[in-house]
């Protein structure tokens, strides 16, 4: 009930997002028609919706050849991740299963009830169904899934045994294992159907950056949840510069130091953005582009919400539903992606506190993102909808006024000379001049390029 009231208030405050929410709902309904009638595949897609609705949505964007393999890929890795995360189970047992998780894919009928809770537990209890579906996808996809699961499982086992990320290098390594490898695996799948630049398999740093950007965003956002569950992913090398214990940042007296640490990690995550933009620009298939662009857009939006936000230490910071829908509906081409990243980079840059010890580094990283996006961004806000409405009104009002003039032929005006003009005619004339003023004043601003100085003061 509280959530519904919050959504209603959000729509009242941001009515322009209502259309995006309705469009996204229709899109979701269309996606549901692509679901297989096979009960095993139905279980897989139902599980996908339960464990991650956001990834389920983008996976359903894919064409038929990629959709099923990537659904299985995600569920296999989600099962592995559930084993790694369940701190209620002995660390050595979890590490052993992580190392051997790729082998269960060839073990028909394997399942377990030892790990997880809720939808994740249900997934592992019925994992034999996922294995059956794994064996139905083409061999090249099976090879990718098995290879990445083995590499990821070994990496996860290493960090189960070491308990934490001590240095930034270890932080990057951990994110590589749990997310960067996902990007590498997906790229290998995409190249099977020539959906991305063929050089991306050799340039793994691009795929890795895609995964690291998403994973670091999640780690930053999930500070409180991880602390309460006994997990620590924020690297010690960073947080010990601001406090003696990571969990102390949630205390009101330590918020200032917590924000410095938070901003440090946001800056670290933003360094991956140029690689992400380069990768997105190399996506050749429209459906694959939508699949890879939406999570990246949501990540930059989430980082913008988290930056210098004390609520990170009080709960999970989220992008509101209406804005999420708007971003999803806009993430359809590279020009829009550049605009979105530009807008959020400027938004974060304008919020950099002058006293923040990382202010200079943050500004430099954001300036590099802004420079990469700048040539694709107009100076004004997006006026596309307003321009289209104004052109439509111009056409309709012109037709109406010409019609009224014809009705009063020979009088020289749209109403008879000496008579009392009708109220609708007066309103039409006023609206026509208003539209003309808009067209002459604002219509062309959409096509003016911005002049953004990277030298301006904070």
TrEMBL record:
Q: Which GO terms describe its biological process?
A: farnesyl diphosphate metabolic process; lipid biosynthetic process
Query: Which residue windows are transmembrane per the record?
Result: 385-402, 423-448
| Keywords for this protein | Lipid biosynthesis, Lipid metabolism, Membrane, Transferase, Transmembrane, Transmembrane helix
**One Pfam family it belongs to:** SQS_PSY
Q: Which domain of life is it from?
A: Eukaryota
One GO MF term attached to the UniProt entry: squalene synthase [NAD(P)H] activity
Q: What is its EC number?
A: 2.5.1.21
Location of this chain's protein in the cell: Membrane
Q: What class of enzyme is it?
A: transferase
One GO cellular component term of this record is: endoplasmic reticulum membrane
- What SUPFAM superfamilies does its record include? Terpenoid synthases
Cofactor(s) of this protein: Mg(2+)
Family stated for the protein in its record: Belongs to the phytoene/squalene synthase family.
Q: What is the protein's given name?
A: squalene synthase
What is the species of this protein?
Answer: Galdieria partita
Please name the taxonomic classification of the source: Eukaryota, Rhodophyta, Bangiophyceae, Galdieriales, Galdieriaceae
């Amino acid at each position: 009930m509280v959530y519904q009231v919050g959504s209603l208030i959000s729509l009242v405050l941001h009515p322009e997002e209502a259309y995006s929410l309705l469009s996204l709902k229709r899109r979701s309904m269309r996606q549901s028609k692509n679901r297989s009638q096979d009960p095993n595949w139905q279980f897989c897609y139902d599980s996908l919706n339960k464990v991650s609705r956001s990834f389920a949505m983008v996976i359903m964007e894919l064409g038929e050849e990629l959709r099923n393999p990537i659904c299985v890929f995600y569920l296999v890795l989600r099962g592995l991740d559930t084993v790694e995360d369940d701190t209620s189970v002995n660390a050595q047992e979890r590490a052993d299963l992580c190392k051997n998780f790729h082998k269960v894919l060839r073990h028909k009928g394997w399942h377990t009830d030892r790990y997880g809770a809720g939808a994740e537990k249900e997934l592992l209890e019925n994992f034999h169904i996922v294995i059956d579906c794994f064996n139905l996808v083409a061999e090249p996809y099976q090879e990718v899934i098995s290879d990445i699961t083995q590499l990821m499982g070994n990496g996860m086992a290493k960090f189960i045994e070491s308990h934490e990320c001590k240095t930034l290098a270890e932080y990057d390594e951990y994110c590589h294992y749990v997310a960067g490898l996902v990007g590498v695996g997906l790229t290998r799948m995409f190249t099977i159907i020539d959906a991305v630049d063929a050089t991306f398999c050799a340039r793994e740093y691009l795929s890795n950056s895609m995964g690291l950007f998403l994973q670091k965003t999640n780690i930053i956002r999930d500070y409180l949840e991880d602390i309460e569950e006994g997990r620590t992913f924020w690297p010690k090398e960073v947080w010990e510069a601001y406090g003696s214990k990571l969990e102390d940042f949630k205390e009101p007296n330590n918020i200032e130091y917590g924000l410095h640490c938070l901003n440090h990690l946001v800056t670290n995550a933003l360094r991956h953005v140029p690689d992400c933009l380069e990768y997105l620009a190399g996506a050749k298939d429209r459906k694959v582009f939508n699949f890879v662009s939406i999570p990246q857009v949501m990540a930059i939006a989430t980082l913008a919400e988290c930056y210098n936000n004390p609520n990170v230490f009080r709960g999970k910071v989220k992008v509101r539903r209406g804005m999420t829908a708007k971003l999803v509906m806009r993430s359809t081409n590279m020009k829009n992606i550049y605009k979105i990243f530009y807008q959020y980079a400027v938004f974060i840059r304008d919020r950099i506190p002058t006293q923040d010890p990382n202010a200079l580094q943050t500004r430099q990283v954001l300036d590099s993102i802004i420079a990469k996006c700048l040539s694709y961004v107009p100076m004004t806000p997006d006026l596309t909808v307003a321009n289209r409405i104004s052109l439509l009104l111009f056409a309709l009002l012109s037709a109406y006024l010409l019609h009224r003039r014809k009705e009063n032929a020979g009088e020289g005006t749209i109403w008879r000379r000496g008579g009392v003009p009708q109220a609708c005619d007066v309103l039409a004339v006023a609206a026509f001049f208003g539209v003309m003023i808009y067209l002459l004043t604002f219509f062309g601003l959409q096509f003016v390029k911005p002049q953004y100085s990277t030298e301006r003061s904070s």
